[in-house]
Design a protein that fits this description.
Helix content: 55-70%
Largest sheet: 4 strands, mixed
Radius of gyration: 29 Å
Number of helices: 19
Shape: globular
Distance between the termini: 69 Å
Number of strands: 16
Strand order of the largest sheet: 11-5-14-15
Structural class: alpha+beta
């Protein structure tokens, strides 16, 4: 028993000394996730902790990649310093406030995470003549990730059940946060530690030659390749249908082509060592034919992509799909034309394309999307003769579909901080309203203002679109006279504040059937529900559409020994024609409190 304990302790100490920065990133990620849970009632703190956690999670894979690279080239301290500087810089690249966070930053985070994992796969294998070592290394990583998932799941579930058993059997009444905190520690830090245990000494252990796993061969031969064959049959039948009917391909087919190609490349990588074995003729046939089967599908893929781009212009998702298509074309060309092709080309080229999409001047995803949508908007306005002295003529008769298209492009560009460009297209009252909307957190108000600005709109749609009604307060200053306390809140999370020993909880969560619950709860005992009042407010204005200006949007009630008042700057309701759900949204709301 003592020998086993010493052995386990020795391995743990070895992991701690060998991978300190990876474990530090895992620990900080767990702490950040716990702080996110603790600050769920404070939007600004929640956002800061979310940024911190994202950067630390990125640091886990980045620091592991740099550690493996240092085992090949040395310079461990320098690489870790550079990695730390990058993570700090990445933290400050993300916006300081939640209101400035857009889907663009989401794309940046996703691509950065992808690049860090790709770096893990090839960082230590940039020189030539390490083909089999490269495969063994990534195969072992793949197996270790799978084992880590199993071990972490069992460990986390077991510990959570143990805590639950102690809680229920001995009446400890543990806080619910204990279960969440335990999960974050074990799922993030624990999984990092277990993964590193499996990797033992690192590069020298991972790249050493070993027998081909039987389960991997079975998985590839009887799962992946049959799945590929199903995809291939579907795509070729659909291609014949396009040729026979002489029609353009549907946009979503591009995702199916990419799925077939990526799964096929994964299958090829998994069976790479078997292609030289004479007994594995099926592997040779598959390896030779796969890239040729993609060539006709590439034509279908580019047709589908450019059909969307030529009609609607570039957006970031379309840019990334096109970039993947170009990468796939490069991979196919490389392996078809090069008899001495290296499988390292696959992750290295994908890393290069991903880095290009983020940082290359003028041609990165975000620059192209903004320029394209600006050009699309100007073309749309010119085509429909809506520009008078370079300003939009809101008096002209237009269709509702055209209005929606213009409004969508305004919203898209507003999210990408193109304020000056958009405001230069408007004048007068609309210009002033849009300028005010830019101060709000959500750009949906901009599209609503734009729609409401057109005076003569012909309804041509069949009512199958979402409808939004916005109530906007004319007064942007809250009168707090007579009240003692003020709590700011929004429609996303609960807010909890202690006042004079009493706890006020603002429950603004989405309830059943997507309905909004807006309650103020005092000491978990007394409750006021403002939801019916808000619903009635919208029903009284149901005959209107777009944005309605109101002198003040407020409601009052008694709550225990207090009198409370909620004041909204603006509040909107979206209606879905498909399931008749109505979603309430608001921001910059305030709860005023005074003792009776």
């Amino acid at each position: 028993m003592k020998t086993k304990i010493r052995e386990i302790t020795g391995k743990a100490q070895d992991v701690l000394s060998r991978y300190p920065m990876v474990l530090l990133m895992g620990l900080l990620s767990s702490v950040g996730a716990i702080r996110m849970l603790d600050s769920k009632y404070d939007r600004e703190s929640l956002f800061i902790h979310s940024k911190f956690t994202i950067c630390c999670c990125l640091g886990i894979s980045l620091m592991f990649a740099l550690k493996i690279l240092s085992q090949r080239i040395g310079k461990r301290l320098l690489l870790e310093i550079l990695g730390t500087v990058f993570l700090i810089g990445f933290f400050f690249i993300l916006p300081a406030k939640e209101r400035d966070f857009t889907e663009v930053h989401g794309f940046i985070i996703a691509i950065a995470l992808l690049l860090s994992h790709l770096l893990v796969s090839f960082g230590a294998f940039l020189e030539k003549n390490r083909e089999l070592n490269f495969w063994q290394y990534n195969k072992n990583l793949f197996v270790n990730i799978f084992l880590t998932a199993i071990f972490t799941g069992v460990l986390t579930g077991g510990v959570e059940l143990a805590i639950l058993a102690v809680d229920k059997l001995f009446d400890f009444n543990f806080s619910d946060n204990l279960y969440a905190d335990t999960f974050y520690v074990l799922a993030i830090f624990g999984s990092s530690f277990i993964f590193l245990l499996f990797n033992e000494t690192g590069l020298s252990y991972l790249e050493k030659d070993s027998t081909y796993p039987v389960i991997l061969k079975f998985f590839t031969q009887f799962v992946l390749i049959p799945l590929l064959f199903i995809y291939l049959v579907i795509l070729y039948v659909y291609s014949f249908k396009i040729v026979i009917n002489w029609e353009l391909p549907r946009g979503w087919v591009s995702y199916l082509v990419l799925a077939y190609s990526i799964i096929g490349i994964l299958a090829l990588l998994l069976v790479y060592p078997l292609k030289e074995e004479k007994a594995k003729s099926w592997v040779k046939v598959f390896s030779k034919l796969f890239y040729y089967t993609i060539i006709p599908l590439l034509v279908l893929l580019f047709m589908a992509i450019f059909t969307r781009i030529l009609e609607y212009g570039y957006t970031e998702p379309r840019y990334f799909v096109l970039l993947l298509a170009l990468w796939l074309l490069g991979v196919v060309s490389y392996f078809v034309l090069n008899k001495k092709a290296s499988i390292k080309f696959i992750p290295i080229s994908l890393f290069a394309f991903g880095a290009f999409s983020l940082i290359f001047p003028y041609l990165n995803a975000f620059s192209i999307a903004k320029r394209s949508q600006k050009n699309q908007l100007m073309t749309l306005l010119d085509k429909n003769k809506l520009l008078v002295n370079n300003k939009i003529d809101f008096q002209k008769k237009v269709s509702d579909t055209l209005v929606n298209e213009i409004a969508d492009k305004f919203e898209f560009l507003a999210e990408r901080k193109q304020k000056d460009f958009l405001l230069n297209l408007t004048a007068g009252k609309t210009h002033d309203l849009l300028a005010g909307d830019f101060e709000n957190i959500h750009s949906s108000l901009i599209s609503s203002t734009l729609r409401n600005a057109f005076i003569h709109v012909n309804k041509t749609s069949d009512g199958s679109e979402y409808e939004r009604l916005v109530l906007d307060s004319e007064s942007k200053v809250i009168n707090i006279q007579g009240y003692q306390y003020l709590i700011n809140f929004d429609s996303y999370n609960q807010q909890s504040k202690d006042i004079n020993g009493d706890t006020f909880l603002i429950d603004s969560q989405t309830g059943v059937n997507n309905g909004k619950t807006i309650k103020v709860i005092l000491n978990s005992e007394e409750t006021v529900d403002f939801s019916p009042v808000i619903d009635k407010l919208f029903e009284n204005n149901a005959s209107h559409s777009g944005t309605i200006k109101m002198k003040e949007i407020s409601m009052e009630s008694d709550l225990g020994k207090y009198h409370i008042k909620i004041v909204f700057q603006n509040i909107s309701r979206d209606s879905s024609p498909y399931n008749k759900q109505k979603t309430i949204f608001y921001n910059n709301a305030a709860l005023l409190i005074k003792e009776k």
